[in-house]
Design brief:
Mean pLDDT: 82
Helix content: under 10%
Number of strands: 12
Structural class: mainly beta
Strand content: 35-45%
Low-confidence stretches: none
Number of helices: 2
Order of helices and strands: EEEEEEEEEEEEHH
Distance between the termini: 34 Å
Shape: globular
Radius of gyration: 15 Å
Length: about 180
Amino acid sequence: AFVIIDSGSKCTIDNSFTVYTSFIPDGKNDGAVIVANYKQDPATFVLATNDLGYIYARADVFNTTTQTNTILNATTQRPFSEYKYPIHAMIVKCTGAGLGESAMRVYINGELEAQSIDFSRAIPEERKADKWLLGRSERQIGRGDFNGWVNEFGVGCGCASSGDIKKFFSYHRIAKLLPS
């Protein structure tokens, strides 16, 4: 089963966004979509696992001049099965001129686990109406449905700072419950 989410908000997640989800995988989830805003290329956002079970975030960049789509991923260094459950994933994309300041970063259980290259993008107007889906994407090509529980999910139109992320995890006592 999957859930379709549409808030009616004017929030677009182009160059500055924060996506948070807490989830508990159950069973085989290699190659599964956890949450997505992806009807067709370019993908606005995908949080999923690859065929080896590593968690990744995806945000595509579409070049209107050449009409080409570039897939940008930030993939963790270990599979989802090696993280303490529930898994708390916060994906942050900021804007900035310095090295790494405009990269997409993946925090798992409060720790920076992956980072993409720096990028800037504009979401095509037709993609802005795409719905958020928990457990799958509208474009089900080569990806399976997520098995398990999505406990929490949220999208912010701004960039959470590293200080905001630390505060979030410490306020919710998540960081103190996790092994170091």
